[in-house]
Design goal:
The complex is a heterodimer of chains A (about 650) and B (about 100). With about 650 residues, chain A is mainly alpha-helical. Chain A has helices spanning about 5-20, 30-55, 85-110, 115-135, 140-155, 165-195, 200-205, 210-230, 235-240, 245-255, 260-265, 270-275, 275-300, 305-325, 330-355, 375-390, 395-410, 410-440, 480-500, 505-515, 525-545, 560-565, 570-615, 625-645; strands at about 60-70, 75-85. The chains are: A mainly alpha (about 650), B mainly alpha (about 100). Chain B: It is an enzyme of class 7 (translocase).
């Protein structure tokens, strides 16, 4: 069984190699090759899962050592895999959702002439992500970490002919670099502290080290997690990453890659458990991000960017839970999995809407689409109910547990974190209801285009295909797109109940992450009821704002907060002023010092030596007579000196 | 006769030779002036030998003659080849070494 682990990674890697090196000959079948290899990986994962279920909870961890990567005295890096319950959860999520999204992309990217390449990149992503979660040491995890970063860069910038996409890809790459630096520093610290970076030895001997060192390592790991998972302060890339094709947003920037940071924290649980300061920072980062993302999500008119804000916010919940320690790890991963289902489903729904609406992303130009896209409406609607935490659906079970765990943290901290989590739940309900109402309900705003007057709803047939200004004809998407949406909608509805009832998920993950039952200061029932109450409050408020009143086709000016939220709460302005300008000032002053001080010393030395030698040069005039004069002069001086000395 | 007079003569001859080296341009004349300076030295050496009553000065004079002969061989060869290529024996023309 152990030998199958490498195949999990090898299948999509093979797909990437074949598709990216195969050339145009594979254009016709390339997308099937990619999809089938993703499915192969899923099947292998399912076989391993079945095998794992057959064993005792304690004996489930298996490993495979492929070869020694860097065998140096005192520095052993191995290509070795480790498959335990945590990795298994990720493997199933990645390959399962990945396969569905491959299938969806066949329809979505049908008219793109670079479709083969797209599937190559998707397979490359799957391979890197699987490597990330299967690695048995931090160095190999780093390889996967960089691999998903590369795949993300390539896929965000897939439509590189658009300058906005190319810029967004670059931005994502650069911001991620900051986080990656954190991970590499963490690995170096581990190596100097423990002499190794394999999970087993590092995590087991964590207790023998000073708390200061562990805090430093944990904070660096958190920085890495912030970069990859778009947490404050490294959150700015995720909104722009929506420039990529929608399946990419669903797979990489919602369901899997952005959750790698949560994986990293939970995997390093033993380090975080012993560094309470780092845990506190983690919870603060999670709490800030969950509000930040939710507020941004409320103001965006671009459906994908609203969902991106929501992703940021939901990952904030996971990071918050992961920062809570053993009372939260399991729920962080549980929310991660359910989020993987419903957020991927929501993104695929958004992609389906865009597909039927001539790639329009502005929700103010949607409206009343439920009649035209019934399947999309239902699946999106189920995802919507799941994310806001409607009782009985996935989000309810996972998010409620996180809020409970936040309160159970205890003391003032617990009240603040729990309050923030509750507030986040209300805002989530608000912005998701807004997206739902603006897209599927209300008047059909796409009909009243500037070119067509309202009393002439039917445009002439000739005008239909005149590009973006032609009135869209909303239609349901092909079956290859709707089937993945339906499957994910099933996941959104039932996954939470399946995991949550009877604490199934807790028992499953407990051997890896450890679990402590949290005791909130108020009863769990009160928390659940208040969660439902704030959810009704948020959704109701959104209904008053966007359901009862007509939605203006042009965004109103809005309050100061709205305008700030539309600009992503000024994150880019902040980065620009503090980092870009600051960096420019720093470099400019360094250049000034370089020019005046360093160059001054060097140039001054050179100039004085040059001037002196210019004068000395005059002595060398090439006339034998003048040399003879200096000879005679020198001899005369010598004789004079000798005589003088003798006289004295 | 007082041997010191020989020394005066030697100094006079040396001065004439040195002046010639400094003011003349023709390489042959220059060369002859150098010879004059060398012979002035020889004269002074022989005079000192006589004054001190030993033969050291005379022996050194022989050495000087041998060196002068060798110098003449090399120096004349250089002057002849310079003259062949430049059609001039002026030392100021051979000033390529200056910057």
């Amino acid at each position: 069984m152990e030998n199958l682990i490498a195949l999990l990674v090898a299948a999509p890697l093979l797909g990437a190699a074949v598709l990216l090196c195969g050339g145009r000959r594979l254009d016709a079948v390339g997308h099937w090759i990619g999809t089938v290899l993703a499915a192969v990986s899923f099947v292998i994962g399912a076989v391993l899962f079945a095998d794992m279920l057959g064993k005792d909870a304690e004996a489930r961890e298996i490993g495979q050592h492929l070869f020694s990567w860097i065998p140096v005295e005192g520095f052993q890096a191995d290509i070795a895999f480790q498959l335990d319950q945590l990795s298994m959860t990720f493997v199933l999520l990645i390959t399962g959702v990945g396969t569905l999204i491959h299938l969806y992309s066949i329809g979505y990217m049908e008219h793109d002439e670079r479709r083969r390449r797209f599937f190559g990149y998707l397979n490359l992503f799957l391979a890197a992500m699987l490597l990330l979660v299967l690695a048995d040491n931090y160095l190999l995890l780093y390889v996967g970490w960089e691999g998903v970063g590369l795949a993300s860069y390539l896929l965000i910038g897939f439509w590189q002919h658009k300058p906005s996409a190319a810029t967004a890809a670059k931005k994502a790459f650069l911001v991620n670099r900051v986080g990656d630096m954190g991970l590499s520093i963490a690995i170096m610290l581990m190596f100097t502290t423990f002499g190794t970076f394999a999970f087993g030895p590092v995590l087991e001997s964590a207790g023998e080290t000073s708390e200061g060192k562990l805090t430093a390592i944990a904070l660096m790991l958190l920085l890495a997690a912030c970069g990859k998972s778009a947490q404050v302060p490294l959150q700015s890339w995720l909104g722009d990453a929506m420039e990529g094709p929608t399946p990419v947003s669903a797979l990489i920037h919602a369901a899997t890659m952005v959750t790698a940071g949560v994986y990293l924290i939970v995997r390093s649980a033993d380090i975080f458990n012993l560094a309470p300061d780092a845990q506190l920072v983690t919870t603060v980062v999670g709490a800030v991000t969950l509000l930040f993302g939710a507020i941004v999500g409320c103001a965006k008119d671009d459906i994908k960017k609203a969902l991106a804000g929501s992703t940021m916010s939901q990952i904030g919940y996971m990071v918050l839970a992961a920062g809570l320690g053993p009372i939260g790890y399991v729920f962080a991963i549980m929310h991660l999995v359910t989020h993987g289902f419903f957020k991927a489903g929501l993104f695929l729904g958004a992609g389906s809407v865009m597909h039927g609406m001539n790639d329009e992303v502005d929700m103010r130009k949607y409206g009343g689409l439920r009649k035209y896209m019934p399947v999309t409406f239902v699946t999106f609607g189920l995802g919507y109910l799941a994310i806001i935490g409607f009782p009985g659906l996935s989000g309810f079970f996972s998010k409620d547990k996180i809020i409970e765990a936040a309160f159970a943290k205890g003391g003032t901290e617990g009240w603040i974190l729990g309050g923030v989590a509750l507030l986040g739940a209300a805002i989530t309900a608000y912005y998701m209801t807004r997206v739902m109402l603006m897209t599927f309900f209300g008047e059909e705003r796409w009909r009243s285009r500037p070119t067509a007057s309202p009393d002439q709803p039917d445009v002439e047939p000739a005008a239909e295909h005149q590009g973006a200004h032609a009135e869209p004809h909303p239609h349901e998407s092909p079956r290859s797109m709707t089937i993945p949406m339906i499957v994910l909608a099933f996941g959104s509805v039932f996954a939470g109940a399946f995991f949550g009832i009877g604490d199934r998920f807790v028992h499953w993950l407990e051997p890896v992450t450890g679990h402590k039952h949290g005791h909130p200061p108020v009863s769990a029932l009160t928390i659940t009821l208040s969660t439902v109450a704030v959810l009704v409050l948020g959704a109701g408020l959104a209904y008053l704002h966007y359901g009862r009143r007509p939605v203006p086709a042009v965004a109103p000016r809005g309050s100061l907060l709205t305008r700030a939220a539309r600009r992503d709460l000024l994150q880019d302005d902040f980065n620009h002023v503090v980092l870009v300008r600051g960096g420019e000032h720093l470099t400019r002053s360094l250049v000034y010092v370089d020019h005046t001080l360093v160059d001054g010393v060097v140039n001054g030395t050179a100039a004085s030596v040059g001037g002196l030698s210019g004068r000395l040069r005059k002595l060398q005039n090439g006339y034998a007579r003048s040399y003879a004069v200096s000879m005679f002069g020198g001899a005369a001086v010598l004789i004079a000196a000798t005589l003088l000395m003798r006289a004295v | 006769m007082n041997p010191v007079n020989y020394l005066y003569l030697a100094a006079l001859l040396f001065t004439i030779g040195a002046t010639g080296v400094l003011i003349r341009r023709n390489a042959i004349v220059l060369f002859m002036c150098v010879e004059l300076m060398l012979n002035a030295c020889n004269l002074a050496l022989v005079a000192f030998s006589r004054m001190h009553g030993n033969l050291d000065g005379q022996i050194i004079a022989f050495f000087v003659m041998v060196v002068a002969a060798a110098e003449v061989v090399v120096g004349l060869a250089i002057i002849v080849s310079l003259f062949r290529s430049r059609h001039s024996a002026s030392v100021d023309d051979a000033s390529l070494m200056k910057l």
